[in-house]
Amino acid sequence: MKTDVITINNIEQDLDKVLDTTEKIGKETGLLDKEKIRLRLLAEELVGMLRGIAGDIVADYWIEYQDKSFELYLTSDVALDQNMRKQIIDVSTSGTNSAVKGFTGKLREMIAILLLPKGDDAYLPGYTMDFMGASSMMGCQLGIDGYIWTMQQYAMAVQSGKDEKSREAWDELEKSIIASIADDVRVSVKGYHVEIVVVKSF
After folding, report:
1. Contact 79, 70 (CB under 8 A)
2. What is the pLDDT of residues 177-186, one digit of tens each?
3. Directed axis angle between helix 33-48 and helix 11-28, to 10°?
């Protein structure tokens, strides 16, 4: 089953539609009250991921579900202007951004970096491909490289790491709302198209 698509033109105004639809599906599928709250939190966190990437963004939200298994989708085409590109490059060139805090903040930064047009990665040597485990996904339409990332693979890589950076990343995962509730988060970026999927079964 799939819900109707909700187009988000303004996150502040349209978030209520997203949450109302999510709560309705939770009720229809017989979720317990605490499960409905968790599903709502995931929807809120998902929409929040687009905040701060590139100003005002138009996005589509929907849920695909069967029984008590849910996939929450958020897709958007993000056109970066010159100022946005410069800002992303400026804060990312060193490979660190002191303003970015927590798992969700780093996830937003990763998406912003992966949106940079081909060629801009020359400003970010070795950073784009390695950041949060983003891996190359070749052979996309029009020959444009794409990227795919999953929270499960990232968590496994972080857990197996022995250095301080891995321990800090694991700590951030444990403190994150979305990481502690969701079964997985999948991010794909092809050109300027972003798709984020949050997966949860109760």
Report:
1. no
2. 999 999 999 9
3. 150
